[in-house]
Amino acid sequence: MNIGWRIWLKKGELKIFGKGPKELLQRTEKMGSLRKAAMSMNMSYSKAWNLISNLEKALDIKILDKTIGGIDGGSSTLTQEGKALIDKYDELEKRIEEAILKIYKEVF
Amino acid sequence: MNIGWRIWLKKGELKIFGKGPKELLQRTEKMGSLRKAAMSMNMSYSKAWNLISNLEKALDIKILDKTIGGIDGGSSTLTQEGKALIDKYDELEKRIEEAILKIYKEVF
Question: What is the number of structural domains in chain B?
Answer without folding.
Answer: 1
